[in-house]
Amino acid sequence: MSEERQGATEVTMSQQGVKSGRFLGSLKDALAAASRDDTQRGPAPAPVEPATQLAPKAEAPKTAAEPVKPEAAPAAAPTPAGLSAAEAAREVKGQTSLKPQDKHLEFGSPPTTRVVRGGPPKVETTGSPRTQLVRGKVQVKRGEFEQDPVVGWLVIVGGAGMGSFRPIFEGNNTLGRATTQRIPLDFGDDTISSEEQAYIRYDSAARSFLFVPNLAKTNVVSINDKRPTGAVELNQMDVITIGRTQLVFVPFCGAEFDWAELTDAKD
């Protein structure tokens, strides 16, 4: 068999191999076969333009069964704290101008809690003096009385104004419904005389209290359910009834204490 017929036979067999589904030979074998044909037919043809040169054999199309290898993804940038991967990608691409601490405004995620170390910031206060710390024995200044010193109280336990109290001052104290009285009983009991219904006097020398009713008034008063006709010494927790009002006597000064002790110590 001649070489030309042998080449034709090989081409025919190659075509039959393609029809039968067999894979062609390598690119090197195909070029060798073409070179043998060209030497038998005549001189070598002119150089082929680069565009018409024989291209490498195309790969067979990939079927669904053959997995496609994914390309290597670029290294992901570190995700900022408090952002999801999608938010981080948008931050890198410059598609959002929100700051990380403001992401919750767009995506609905809660804001990140910031930890403040070193305690709360100091707030400067102006206008109010600072409290001074006192150490050792306290030196208290004792001057003159700014008002009449309180020597006891009358506490209302019955009638109008129940639960209220009125202070008793040193010297002579007048009791009455009018507000001009030194001990005003102005709680609404109209059976009390407006002026000088009675007197309460504290004697600093004797350190004693005296209750003196005003016998010129028509409404009588009583102490512990007794109607006095003259001055009566008051004792702690005595009950005084004037009109429809009951008062309890509570002394502050007496045998155990008097304001004179403080004034004498000052001298």
From TrEMBL:
Residues 55-87 have a biased composition (Low complexity). Residues 1-129 are annotated as: Disordered. Residues 174-243 form the FHA domain. Residues 9-18 have a biased composition (Polar residues). It comes from the Bacteria. This is FHA domain-containing protein. It comes from Hyphomicrobium album. The lineage of its organism: Bacteria, Pseudomonadati, Pseudomonadota, Alphaproteobacteria, Hyphomicrobiales.
